[in-house]
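Milestone 3.1: sequence recovery, worked example.
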């Protein structure tokens, strides 16, 4: 099947599943679409018991789609830019300390806790994984997915301060999480014997600082260009923002800096919210409407793909893996709790105030999504990683993502009512 055929199929499925969710399930879009896609995958597998060729064809079709390539190099940049575009910049600046600490320190704490717990607990369940691969899994599963988080937050009536903390942390820790993952991946490839703190520090700094600088430069230039156009040509404004994302993403890839961080900074620069009235006129309302529509469309496609990815994941499943997946869900939640608890309580010592229930909300509302699955699929491309490690990491990642989006996503309103 060609690229055009695949795109056509995904858009048709997105329209059909969205209509089904609106008319029947009436769930938040993210949860509803993924639930329908999961149910469709199960149906394909059941039909495959009678007609094996049908299941094999569907599985081959999904496996043929380069999920990690499309998400990490194309979709992610568009979705992060669109998400940051609608964020209130003044609120981000007010909450910059909590956001930076939660996104940076929280990721490190969570990665370490997940890695250590898996390293010591999995052998008790009959699975031995080298410590570096445990850390690699910790890095890919620790970032909360801004795409999942932002799409759900809009449905709930949270206080503005808590909402901006969750939005800001999810946007920035996503970029930082990818950088931590790539850093640990390089250490794993080179071997612990060649581990050099200075080299790792340079790599990490280049990715993070380079991404922030790139986003600031392109975002500033783009803002000035939009200000010059001054809403006279709507189609030109949209073309400019599209060009900024595509060019910025390509430069980030060639310069080996963090594309996700660059997209977030660009979106904050160009967005209207939180700016003075003069600066806010630079970007017309149709630009926001366009990006909101694009974000919703890509959201639908992404979560349908996550659900359909079960056809690929189920091929490697064993009973032992199911047990490991259940244990991993608990481990990730524990790590997320401490990754939030320690930074927040440390900031409280410096008189930083947090609303009641912030730790619980950040812990349970820290959803994982397509980024974690894409990074897990990326691991499968490296021949030097043992096959059993690849299969285990992919399956337990899928378990955590499905649990977080469906179970955590559906029960967030209950938690909010309890906190209130």
């Amino acid at each position: 099947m060609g690229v055009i055929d695949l795109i056509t199929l995904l858009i048709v499925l997105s329209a059909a599943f969205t209509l089904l969710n609106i008319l029947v399930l009436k769930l938040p879009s993210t949860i509803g679409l993924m639930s329908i896609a999961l149910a469709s995958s199960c149906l394909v597998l059941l039909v495959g018991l009678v007609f094996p060729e049908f299941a094999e064809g569907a599985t081959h079709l999904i496996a043929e789609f380069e999920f990690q390539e499309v998400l990490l190099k194309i979709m992610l940049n568009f979705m992060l830019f669109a998400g940051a575009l609608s964020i209130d910049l003044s609120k981000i600046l007010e909450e910059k300390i909590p956001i930076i600490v939660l996104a940076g320190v929280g990721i490190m704490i969570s990665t370490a806790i997940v890695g250590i717990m898996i390293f010591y607990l999995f052998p008790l369940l009959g699975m031995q994984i080298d410590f570096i691969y445990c850390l690699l899994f910790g890095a890919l599963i620790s970032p909360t997915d801004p795409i999942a988080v932002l799409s759900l937050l809009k449905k709930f009536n949270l206080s503005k301060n808590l909402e901006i903390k969750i939005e800001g942390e999810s946007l920035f820790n996503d970029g930082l999480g990818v950088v931590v993952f790539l850093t640990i991946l390089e250490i794993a490839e080179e071997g612990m014997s060649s581990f050099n703190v200075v080299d790792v520090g340079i790599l990490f700094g280049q990715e993070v600082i380079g991404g922030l600088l790139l986003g600031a430069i392109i975002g500033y230039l783009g803002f000035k260009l939009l200000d010059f156009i001054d809403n006279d040509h709507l189609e030109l404004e949209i073309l400019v923002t599209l060009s900024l994302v595509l060019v910025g993403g390509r430069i980030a890839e060639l310069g080996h800096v963090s594309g996700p961080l660059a997209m977030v900074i660009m979106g904050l620069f160009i967005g209207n919210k939180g700016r003075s009235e003069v600066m806010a006129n630079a970007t017309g309302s149709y630009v926001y409407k366009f990006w909101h529509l694009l974000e919703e469309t890509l959201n639908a496609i992404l979560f349908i793909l996550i659900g359909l990815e079960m056809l690929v994941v189920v091929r490697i499943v064993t009973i032992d893996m199911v047990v490991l997946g259940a244990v991993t869900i608990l481990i990730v939640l524990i790590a997320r709790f401490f990754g939030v608890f320690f930074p927040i309580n440390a900031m409280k010592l410096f008189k930083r105030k947090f609303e009641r229930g912030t730790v619980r909300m950040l812990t349970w509302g820290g959803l994982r999504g397509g980024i974690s699955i894409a990074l897990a699929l990326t691991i499968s491309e490296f021949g030097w990683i043992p096959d059993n490690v690849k299969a285990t990491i992919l399956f337990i990642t899928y378990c955590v993502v499905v649990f977080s989006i469906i179970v955590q996503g559906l029960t967030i309103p209950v938690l909010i009512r309890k906190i209130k």
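The two ends are 51 Å apart (CA to CA). The chain has a mean pLDDT of 88.
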